[in-house]
Amino acid sequence: MSTAEQPTPAKRRGRRPGGQDTRAALVAAAREVFSESGYEGATVRAIAARAGVDAAMVNHWFGGKEGLFAQAVLQLPFDPVELLSQLLDGPVDELGKRIVRRFLTVWDATEGGAFPALVRSIASHDQAALSLKDFLIRHVLENVVSRVSPDRPELRATLCASQMVGMGMARYVAKFEPFSTTDIETLAAAVGPTLQRYLTGDID
Asked: Is there a domain that residue 5 lies in?
């Protein structure tokens, strides 16, 4: 039989090979499972099954559930320096609206992204709470407040954080209606003035 007549080998079936595509599949699946079940409720077996890979691949790529959680959930989808520049680009008296608009735009694009997984895991995973605090308050809001606020920057930053976390909970975790489906501009107009008061107004 000539080379041209050789039969084409059948494609292999079964689980994914253990390459970078497996790693990416595990990260995506983990974010979904952690969002649904929180850190304690999520199992390596469930995550691997969602990704279509062998559970041993979790240890191979991440060293276990803790390492996978760090990669899938604690690595939040923002560059703090770039985000800070975007938030400060515009009139100070519209900063509250820009913060609401920017965060919801990014979160909506990924249906909340890692936020639901992070929130559901806070009660059972100390690092989740520290990660949210470190990113949202220390890297973003405290930097914003220090540039525009007259006093009490730490309190103002945490007041803003309480508003943003509450919005994220209502929109992506509890999915309160009509809040969860209201357009971003409407929410920016409604909630932005509250953040603005926290940022630059009288909070006594």
From this structure: no
What's the pTM? 0.70
Which residues have CB under 8 Å from 180's CB, separation 6+?
Answer: 170, 171, 172
Q: Are the C-beta atoms of residues 198 and 153 closer than 8 Å to each other?
A: no
pLDDT on residue 19: 65
Residue 4 lies in a domain: no
pLDDT < 70: residue spans in the chain: 1-20, 75-80, 112-113
Same domain, yes or no: 128 and 159: yes
Are 93 and 196 within 8 A, CB to CB?
yes
Residue 90: strand, helix, or coil: coil
Residue 148 contacts residue 200 (beta carbons within 8 Å): yes
CATH number at residue 33: 1.10.10.60
Compute φ and ψ for 43, nearest 5 degrees.
-115, 155
Tokens of 91: 């009139």
pLDDT tens digits, one per residue of 46-96 = 999 999 999 999 999 999 988 888 788 776 656 667 888 899 999 999 999
Which range of residues forms the domain containing residue 69? 18-73
Same domain, 142 and 183: yes
Q: How far apart are CA 82 and CA 60, in angstroms?
A: 33
CA dist., res. 112 & res. 84, Å (int): 20
For helices 80-88 and 95-109, angle between their N-to-C axes, nearest 10 degrees:
140
- Number of neighbouring beta carbons within 10 Å of residue 184: 15
